Amino acid sequence: MPDTLTQAASSRPAPLAAVNDFVVKFANVNGSGSASANGLFAKSIIRMGVPVAARNIFPSNIQGLPTWYEVRVSGAGHLGRRGGVDLAVPLNPQTWDDDVKEISPGGYLFYDSTKPLPASKFRDDINIIGVPLTAICNEAYKLPRERQLFKNICYVGALSWLISIDRAVIEQLLKEEFASKPKLIGANLNAFNLGRDWAKANLQPIGLQLQKSDAVGDRIFVEGNAAAALGAVYGGATVCAWYPITPSTSLAEAFTGYCEDFRTAEDGSKNYAIVQGEDEIASIGIVVGAGWNGARAFTCTSGPGISLMNEFIGLSYFAEIPAVIFDVQRGGPSTGMPTRTQQSDILLAAYASHGDTKHVLLLPSDPGECFTMGAQAFDLADRLQSTVFVMLDLDIGMQEWLCEPFKWDDAKQLDRGKVMTAEQLEAGAFFGRYTDVDGDGIPFRTYPGTHPTKGAYFTRGTSRNRMAGYSEKGVDYQDNMERLLKKFHAAATLVPGPVLRLAREKTRIGAIYFGSTTPAMHEALEALEAAGHHIDAMRVRAFPFSQDVYDFIHAHDEICVVEQNRDAQLRSLLMIEGGIDASHLTSILHYDGTPITARFLFDAIGKRLEARKATRQITEKGPRQ
Amino acid sequence: MTYIVKPKLHHPSLPKNDLGFTRRDYEGRISTLCAGCGHDSISAAIIQACWELSIQPHRLAKISGIGCSSKTPDYFLSQSHGFNSVHGRMPSVLTGANLANRDLIYLGVSGDGDSASIGLGQFAHSIRRGVNMSYIVENNGVYGLTKGQFSATSDKGSKSKKGVENTESGIDLVALALQLGATYVGRSFSGDKDQLVPLIKGAVSHHGPAFLDVISPCVAFNNHAGSTKSFDYVREHNEAVNRLDVILGRAPITTEYRPGELREVTQHDGSVLRLRKLHDDYDPTNRIAAANYLQERHAEGEIVTGLLFVDPDATDLHDRLGTTAQPLNQLGASDLTPGAQALAKINAGLR
Questions:
Q1: Which of A215, A383, B224, B317 is 20 to 30 A from A36, alpha carbon to alpha carbon?
Q2: pTM
């Protein structure tokens, strides 16, 4: 059964049969126009009310290299990668062998049968479906570009017959997409029908079937980068400085688009400024300059950009200047895997720059949280007068996810933090730029230009006393560093707290996870529970960790820390900041650049718990109190 | 780095400007630079220029990078917010500050190490981006704080204090600024206050990227025979192309000039740059001719000073971006947040 995470081996498997629960994987050539056809395929299933998790696996290339699109159909609503492929659509000869190898026994191979392929290219434990896509399109179209582009829609048509996609849904989607170019609606529909009609005349629907459902509800389908950009708009960001880098580029582009729509007055004047910097250093410099001067500013980048920005991040920490950085993580180190996903900038971001520094990290788990945390980051940066990172990864940032609709409370005001006004200064309020007046380590600041004779101060990256005067005295330096630490502890009470997910039965085993691991983790936890492994799970949403996180760890005998990097970076943070014993924390690591799968988690955590059970009893039986 | 507090008492006879401020009101803390440092003369010129222009000190922001020159903003305009930022990155910090509030005056102070070496990229891009700023490089051709290494503006063949000859080509920031689209470009000498003060006034009142290269001899490490940035060398080779007066409003011309000797350039804000020509063939509104002239004279070993180029119709980054007139840092939630209703529409478009 494809809906379980355990794969049964059999030499002559029956054809897979499932309703609203399977994985389809397309293999294409980058730049061949397949992306829009594949997107149409995924979106049509969502419109039928069936949840879909779609992932584009693409190369660092403009044209010619292999690209894949994986569509997980899950009526149960599992949005992580499951692992395995039930229906493969390999349309790229370069990757044929690997693509065919991946198909689950009993699964289906859909291919372009225009040219005969030797039997050695197939497997006898899968079901072969040939459709002469090239021949159909060559007959119907004359222009080479049309033949290529419409072949993509043509295979969607054929597949729609095989798995029962509602044709009316496709028609509606094409109407919406090409509303401004009506000619293309008919042309695309025609190509769709070419494939569908051929399949209807020659093939039977397969065992993987779609049925209309209402499991999608009012959820939206959106990229994390776009959601984070929208969060920045709602969070009041006015200055964006950025430098193009995969996978963060679309965040700045989405911000530009939303600002054009929502921040431009009728006379064309703009309530925002976007500058493409000459590099990441200039980008963060612009952000720090704007933050110093009272504008909400951000940059978006990926790991290599964070490496370059380190010096400014240290300045932001030490001189206490708000800045927001969206880090859309990719495979590192160095240039690494620019188009693959990882959670491998956690330590880099948490302790960015030389000297003793610590920074706030927000860890969104889906585009919905990219929006809320994207907005909240600006309040936190202003409140804490420091850098706040929003740690996306490529899997969240560049993939469209189904998530709850964005929500906004119109009563919400921007929290600009402790900013002393001209009126307060005029009234004689005490102003000491680096003086802790409230006991939370957070001092007051003034914006340049506030008052003719009061409140001016000199900002520097060198040591200073409480009144912002240059000081090399050890006592002044240490006093300031202690206050910064106090401020960081205050941050732990302001950032989003962890989310607890308790097992059905009482257990001494816990798991900690974060970010894009979430949907696969939830699915794995369900399957593990069904297999008798009860695990209390906690999703951390921010660094610094709140006391709840440490309490959770101490309340369990063993904690599996799940993350998508080699070096167990979150685990290191828990050990460093919480003084947790290394033996208390078991690493579950997935870092090959592909998004973590539920099957991997089921196996890895399951094996660990089996091994543990073999040595001692870990589960206290009985219902949870 | 102030160990001595300046007395706040002012002599009652000190002249006051239109705002009722004396020059002392534009001063900063006591300098910690070496006695006789050219940079202190530049600070004095900045104080004089801002006083003469009757600038409200708190409406100016002074931003610098790292180095001797970048320490100087602490030594003038103590009622202005200052930001001693990161080595070579003053231009980006200033750009961001300027984006946040277009209503303030931005004075960027940098040095030759800060702008011609580590910061050459940011220098170039802030100028080509058109940031409205006065960018002053206090150029001494040497790394002072680290005790005497050549900087990138050191001329080839110039000798260090230890007698080592510089074998690398020097970078001419003025030539670069002209090519990159600076709309106000001048060069001066810290030892010529009469020339420098009006050049700073012109830069501050200019709307667009204004760049000033001020040769400022380092008395500790680059003021010896064989250096092309020493007081003696610069005095001997200084070739001023004009003398500038900056006039706010329309002051009458009181001195008699030869026909063609006086040239007036009216800037966008109505300020008038009145130039007394010292070289008949020099046209400060011709960018290409200015660049050529500089190269020719440089080959002759001359240091060309004065207002070298000005575009009176300059625009700035905000003009190019179309930013709203109200400073971005003063916009509130109602200006910035599209609201729940707009969000509902966005949601509908994502289904």
A1: A215
A2: 0.95
